[in-house]
């Protein structure tokens, strides 16, 4: 039980990677707070997970300091602590660069970048006050490194999350708080199936650039999140770890079975 007695807060936890990570934290002994904009769905998931899970409905595209403090307070009020924070909620929109809408650019930065900044800040304040040597994990992406011409706002937000993670890590390690990030490749979640894997041509493009020859599973990201949150990762500070099936180290392309 890697996380026995710990309290973990996960944003974007109604489905996909967030839910898989929350379930893994729970399996490893943590009590979990699930945060999501899909109020009914996150409530159902928390109820399904039982008494060691609770939920908070929030639209992180409206995030401000007060909302961030309220989210963190849910963990402390309900379970008495906050030891692990996974800022996972994220959205993507694809459009040609010259047509990319300004309002959607802004919204993506608020959900993907501003919410980990403010929730990480609020959590760190509480951890420092309570003397908790916690672990904060932000959700980046291989798109922190790779330029996708039709997802400018997403790529910018994920590159910024990588650097946010580095800055937070250096600022908070003196309090014993470790901050790291995850940068998954293409993982089979609803976000991916409805966007990058929506057409056969896109499926071929993704797989031809994925040496392992398949998409990742949410559980394969949850394993890394659980490791980063645990004492097994006690000397890992400020890193973005890429569970990507070899995507970032590939130069050319690989054959795809049709
Ligand atoms: N799936 C992948 O291949 C992949 C790869 C790299 C990075 N990521 C990142 O992992 C994270 C999770 O992705 P996923 O594939 O599970 O996506 P998903 O769409 O299945 O889940 C995202 C969750 O975030 C929630 N969310 C969206 N907007 C929100 C808002 N305004 N306020 C609160 N919650 C909100 C959604 O309701 C949903 O539950 C995202 O940050 C994504 O960018 C995913």
Automatic annotation (TrEMBL):
<dbReference type="InterPro" id="IPR002347">
    <property type="entry name" value="SDR_fam"/>
</dbReference>
<keyword id="KW-0560">Oxidoreductase</keyword>
<dbReference type="GO" id="GO:0047936">
    <property type="term" value="F:glucose 1-dehydrogenase [NAD(P)+] activity"/>
</dbReference>
<dbReference type="InterPro" id="IPR020904">
    <property type="entry name" value="Sc_DH/Rdtase_CS"/>
</dbReference>
<comment type="similarity">
    <text>Belongs to the short-chain dehydrogenases/reductases (SDR) family.</text>
</comment>
<dbReference type="Pfam" id="PF13561">
    <property type="entry name" value="adh_short_C2"/>
</dbReference>
<protein>
    <submittedName>
        <fullName>Glucose 1-dehydrogenase</fullName>
        <ecNumber>1.1.1.47</ecNumber>
    </submittedName>
</protein>
<dbReference type="InterPro" id="IPR051122">
    <property type="entry name" value="SDR_DHRS6-like"/>
</dbReference>
<dbReference type="InterPro" id="IPR036291">
    <property type="entry name" value="NAD(P)-bd_dom_sf"/>
</dbReference>
